Amino acid sequence: MTAHVLAEIQNRIGILTLDRSRALNALSLDMVRAISAHLRAWRDDDSVLAVLIRSSSERAFCAGGDIRFFHEVGNAAPAGGSALLEDFFTEEYALNHLIHHYPKPYIALLDGIVMGGGMGITQAGKQRLAIVTERTRMAMPEVHIGLFPDVGGSHFLTRMPGQLGRWLALSGETISAADALHANLADVFLPAALLPELMGMLGQHAARDAADIVNMIREFAAPHVRDAGHGRLADARERIDRLFAADTVSAIVSGLKQEGDDFAAATLHAMERGSPLMLCVTLEQLRRGAGMSLAECLRMERDMVRHCFERTEVLEGIRARVIEKDNAPRWSPASLADVDEAMVTAYFEPVWPAHMHPLREL
């Protein structure tokens, strides 16, 4: 269906390989459609016991959605009203929902960079088996480009232990394999050098059923459980849970300033890179998402993303961080003190009547 998604069935495992390495496997609309089509076909194919998704590149599993495309079509269309953008987010979020509720084991080899949309195609439901390596670098950095943590972030970030989801979303910080395991964003660790051996074993061993495939992978990875090392989040959990439980972004920032240690200073610096408005929008998003189903979260996010492209923050953020790379976004408002409640709640106004929402069938 697309040269950037390779699909094959080996030994009753449907294998999807993301193959857009020059763009760090940034998801295009064609890639979203190809992944969706194969997953739907394999879901109903009794000869396929499980699905495995991986990258052809050592650098990245998937660095997110194609934000250069977002910038191009968002600027070309009046008031962000691009049909291509509309289709992309509707179909990407529907794919996130499909993966979350997939009825077969969904095995993700998260080698290299895993960000944004890459998280959306890995944070599946109860049958997820996410494998990280020493090269894994995971993040939800959307606030740094004037966006919010979408692709179901309202749901999976609020189900993380303690306040780790708030920290990840508001800081946009990158975490390691050990941190991903601590945060329940991954399940097992395997040294990258052993990935070819794992794939060879999966291709040769005749699995009795889906559970046999999962057990085989877990047993293969078990001797390496300590090889992930020690991450920083375990040591910082008490501070994260205490500081990020605050009701407002301003209170979180104030607490970080008072804390005064290296971790707090790094977190504060990371938050200062984000859009003040979208930091506040993100906190409200997570507050609401904590009490919603995944489908409700995705419908909320679909409304939110339409509002984002009707305004300037995301296009300005992409310009500054990715297109011109001056790293000097002109945020509006420029400071947290100038963000008011009306600015935040505007992002949660329904765009469509419920019966016309593009994700109403979820």
What structural keywords apply?
11% strand, single chain, Enoyl-CoA hydratase/isomerase family protein, alpha/beta, 362 residues, six-stranded mixed beta sheet, 2-enoyl-CoA Hydratase, Chain A, domain 1, three-stranded parallel beta sheet, 16 helices
Short structural summary:
The protein is an alpha/beta fold. It has helices spanning 29-43, 67-76, 83-100, 117-120, 153-156, 164-171, 177-182, 195-204, 210-221, 233-243, 249-259, 262-272, 276-289, 294-310, 313-323, 341-345, and strands at 5-10, 13-18, 50-55, 60-62, 106-110, 113-115, 128-132, 137-139, 188-189.
| Biggest β-sheet description | 6 strands, mixed
Instruction: Give the number of DSSP strands.
Output: 9
Mean pLDDT: 95
Q: Please compute the radius of gyration using only Cα atoms.
A: 20 Å
Low-confidence stretches: none
- Net shape: globular
- Spatially, the strands of the biggest sheet line up as 1-2-3-5-7-9
Count of structural domains: 1
GO molecular function: 3-hydroxyisobutyryl-CoA hydrolase activity
InterPro entries: ClpP/crotonase-like_dom_sf, ECH_dom, HIBYL-CoA-H
Pfam families: ECH_2
Domain Enoyl-CoA hydratase/isomerase: 13-348
What does this structure look like?
The protein has one domain (5-356): Alpha-Beta Complex (2-enoyl-CoA Hydratase, Chain A, domain 1), CATH 3.90.226.10. It is α/β, with parallel strands linked by helices. Helices cover 46% and strands 11% of the residues. Residues 13-348 form the Enoyl-CoA hydratase/isomerase domain.
